[in-house]
Amino acid sequence: MVVEQANGAALPAETFDYCSASDPNPGALRTHVYPEGATVCYFYEKQDFPENARTLRVDSPVPGSEPRIWFGQDYAVLVWYNGNDQSGQISVTVYTWCGRWIAWRPAVPAFGDTLNLEQLQVHSQNDFFYPLMAAR
Fold first, then answer.
1. 81 and 117 in contact (C-beta within 8 Å)?
2. Of 27, 49, 31, 54, nearest to 41 (Cα)?
3. pTM higher than 0.70
4. CA–CA gap between residue 65 and residue 84 (Å, rounded)
5. pLDDT tens digits for range 56-104
6. Which tens digit of pLDDT belongs to each residue from 14-58?
7. What pLDDT score was predicted for residue 98?
8. What domain of life is recorded for the organism (predicted)?
9. Which region, left, alpha or beta, applies to residue 125 given φ > 0 means left and ψ of -120 to 50 means alpha?
């Protein structure tokens, strides 16, 4: 595109410069020079977001229990069970990543039952999961 002045003289073309691969925002617009001579400069800084760390420490909600984990397409199912406790408590939590970990627990987070932990299975599908638990 050519911009002309009233006297017919052409103004210089617009120019664009982009950030290099070593810059904090590779490929982003760095400078824009308008035909009239105005220059716009953009500056980018690297920013770390520690709250976006995907590492999550999960403490056992059932004392003395063993964790089991299964993965779905975009979630993880964490089950805690204490087979040595007579109450046979089990706790189920589902975690999904949405820029941070979001936890969901069933309305009854721990319930009593006597399970064979070796036969505890969770079948994960795209949008749901279901546990299979065999009684002792």
1. yes
2. 31
3. no
4. 8
5. 889 988 788 888 899 988 899 998 877 666 666 778 899 998 878 899 9
6. 999 999 999 999 999 999 999 889 999 999 998 876 666 778 889
7. 86
8. Bacteria
9. beta
35: alpha, beta or left? (left if phi > 0; alpha if psi -120 to 50): alpha
- If 0-12 CB within 10 Å is exposed, 13-18 middle and 19+ buried, where does residue 8 land? exposed
Neighbours of 119 (CB within 10 A): 11
Read off the amino acid at residue 122: V
Burial class (CB in 10 A: 0-12, 13-18, 19+), 133: middle
Parallel, antiparallel, or unpaired for β 101-104 and 66-71?
A: unpaired
3-class DSSP state for residue 100?
coil
